[in-house]
Write a structure and sequence with these properties.
Elements: E1 31-34, E2 37-44, H1 58-62, H2 65-68, E3 82-88, E4 98-102
Antiparallel strand pairs: 1-2, 1-4, 2-3
Length: 105
């Protein structure tokens, strides 16, 4: 859904921008493959004041108290992004597939 914030790829500080990956289904502990690297989702990202340049209400649009509590039933779950640790390093290039390899039960 378009929210009319003046954003572009990388504007929120993300290292990876994906298409077709359902971030609402991701959970802490899930494992992803990005190109030749393997990643594990470690926590949800919290919006910081750096995002204020894109509009005062952006933080509330992508993060809420439910998300803060770790509640994946929030309609905003995953919208602020996730932190991940590299569990197996490898090359990653533009156009590489990013896919879920293992999901938490």
């Amino acid at each position: 859904m378009a929210r009319r914030f003046p954003l572009f790829f990388g504007a929120l500080g993300e290292n990876f921008t994906t298409r077709g990956l359902d971030f609402r289904q991701l959970r802490i502990g899930d494992q992803l493959r990005a190109g030749g690297a393997r990643l594990e989702i470690t926590k949800i990202r919290t919006p910081c004041s750096q995002l204020d340049v894109y509009g005062a209400s952006l933080g509330g649009e992508i993060y809420d108290p439910q998300v803060r509590r770790g509640d994946y039933t929030s309609p905003r779950w995953g919208m602020s992004g996730f932190y991940a640790r590299v569990t197996s390093p490898g090359p990653v290039a533009t156009g590489d597939i990013i896919a879920v390899e293992a999901m938490l039960a």
